């Protein structure tokens, strides 16, 4: 994604930071800062010592209100964190450092609604997954992300359809070890099989295809008895 340093310079000038300070941080000349930001003025007067201190105090308050911690602010301006705390405490309370801004919450919520995972959002925003989950939870529910199975791979539902039996029966067979071991297991523990694995297993499985419905049964006599049960009149 492209970045536009002039936007940050505008914000810094709005917060009262001097042109010289902005230029030093950005590694450019003061003239470059003026050229990029002067058309959007006027800006707070920071020419005298008192004005510069007041502008810095306002900037620190604005930063703390955006969730930036005292230590980070102090490190940026090369001052003691106690100095920042003392200069800004009268404007408290402030959000806990690291608290996402309303704009971040809106962005993360929109991403979750579009189907992105919490892990993807957290990686993009360079924050923890827990923070994304907590910030977006009040705005849910969100669509459940279904893990797509590659074409030609069997899941339990596919095997059930192939054998003409219910998914519940296949689930029982899997839990009791009747199915062959899966060829793959997803990160969430979902078993998957190659078609050749299932096709090789069927002839040796002991299953019998029902002549009436085609379903494969482990106990064909019991299964066929169900077909022959008299229909109530």
Describe this structure in words.
- By secondary structure, this protein is mostly helical.
- It is built from 13 helices and 4 strands.
- Among the domains are: 38 residues; 72 residues, no CATH class.
- The longest helix is centred in the first third of the chain and has 17 residues.
Spatial extent as radius of gyration: 32 Å
- Let me know the number of strands: 4
**Element-level helix/strand string:** HHHHHHHHHHHEEHEEH
Total DSSP helices: 13
> What strand line-up does the widest sheet have?
1-2
- Uncertain residue ranges: none
How confident overall, as mean pLDDT?
81
Give the end-to-end Cα distance, rounded to a whole number of Å. Answer: 72 Å
- So what's the overall shape? rod-shaped
Helix and strand composition category = mainly alpha
Strand residues, percent: under 5%
Largest sheet: 2 strands, antiparallel
Classify the helix fraction into a percent range. Answer: 40-55%
How is the secondary structure organized here?
Elements (H helix, E strand, L loop, with lengths): L4 H10 L4 H8 L3 H8 L11 H17 L4 H8 L3 H8 L13 H12 L4 H8 L3 H8 L19 H8 L3 H9 L8 E2 L5 E2 L2 H7 L6 E2 L6 E2 L2 H9 L5
Antiparallel strand pairs: 1-2, 3-4
What's the short story on this structure?
This protein has 233 residues and is mainly α. Helices cover 52% and strands 3% of the residues.
């Amino acid at each position: 994604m492209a970045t536009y340093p002039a936007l940050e310079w505008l914000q810094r000038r709005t917060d009262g930071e001097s042109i010289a300070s902005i230029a030093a941080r950005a590694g450019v000349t003061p003239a470059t800062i003026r050229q990029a930001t002067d058309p959007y003025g006027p800006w707070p007067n920071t020419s005298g010592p008192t004005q510069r201190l007041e502008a810095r105090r306002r900037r620190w308050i604005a930063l703390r209100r955006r969730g930036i911690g005292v230590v980070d602010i102090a490190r940026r301006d090369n001052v003691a964190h106690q100095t920042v705390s003392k200069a800004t405490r009268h404007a408290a309370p402030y959000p806990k450092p690291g608290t996402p801004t309303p704009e971040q919450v809106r962005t993360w919520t929109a991403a979750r609604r579009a189907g992105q995972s919490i892990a993807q959002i957290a990686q993009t925003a360079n924050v923890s997954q827990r923070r994304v989950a907590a910030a977006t939870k009040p705005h849910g529910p969100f669509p459940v992300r279904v893990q797509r199975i590659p074409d030609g791979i069997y899941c339990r539902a596919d095997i059930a359809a192939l054998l003409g039996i219910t998914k519940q029966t296949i689930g029982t067979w899997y839990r009791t070890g009747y199915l062959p071991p899966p060829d793959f297991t997803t990160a969430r523990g979902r078993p998957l099989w190659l078609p050749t694995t299932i096709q090789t297993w069927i002839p040796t499985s002991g299953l019998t295809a029902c002549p009436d419905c085609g379903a494969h049964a482990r106990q064909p006599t019991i299964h066929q008895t169900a077909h022959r049960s008299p229909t109530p009149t």
